[in-house]
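Quick one: structure for this chain?
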Amino acid sequence: GRLLLGTFADPARQIVATDFVGDHVVTVLAWLPGDRLAVGSLRGKISVYAGDSGILVAAGTTALGSVGEIAGSADGDVLALAGAEGGVGLWRVGTAALIGEIPARHPRSFAFTDAGLWVHDGALSTWRVPVGAPAVVRTTGGLADVAASAAGDSTALGVGDGGVWTVGLADGAVRRQQLGERVVKAVSFDASGAGLFASGMSSPWLTYTALNGDVAAIAGGRPLRRLASLPDGSLLGVDIAAGLYRWAKLTELPTILAADRAFSDVERDGAALVVLDGHGVIERLDGATFTSLATVPDARAVALRGELVAIARPDGVELHSGGAVRQLAAP
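Got it. Here's what it folds into:
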């Protein structure tokens, strides 16, 4: 478990005792800018040491399993970590905190570039990586829902005082619009990015707001707590009575799906849909056909990206992919 730091002339200039023994045996080392050394272990432990003194700078544990590869950003403040359990974790050295995880099923390689992080897992993709201190937006009446645009350049917030806030992720600019006096429970960008849907607890119950500010009420609107807009222009929503509704056309009344069941969430990725019912059953929805994916009795919410389904539970998050299940601890 000892860490030896030195030079070619003096290979053992520093000898530092560590806890990288037993289950935490070292699997990978990587030098970072600023003469720092990142160390990954068999059980997902990650530590960063000052290269000149061997002093421990930061340490934490990931849910990635055995760490097989590490890459550092240009300033050395963000690490990308690939583990045996799949995914690429992003870890901030300064705060020893997990930023997030890129849903790559079997990452083969990755590297930081000026454009972001390149990840190769059979296909090459580029991901923007948060840098610097996170921007904090404080709403005036509590936060009920969050939605990201298809391009990933903005996010919409459903606010407790009846407002919808749109936040530009590049510059942090906030555009506020008041839709009513009571909480906006659900928001969702349309697939084209030309506007967003919002549903609240005051009339009009369901609206579409174009980016130029024009607001239109949707036929058959009802107070929804979850929303999902599809590329074909249709809309799905779970109302406050747990019914699942589909608007095939926004000028026509919706139809109810599986009227004998109660639902708590609906999410989409592209044209793919996943729903969560009141018993913790997670299913893909294709038209009116439900295909079971998993059952998690205490599931609170779901998210979908490709074949990866994230399920929020009271004690953390489960990631389901191709029959494999991985646990992420609660923040």
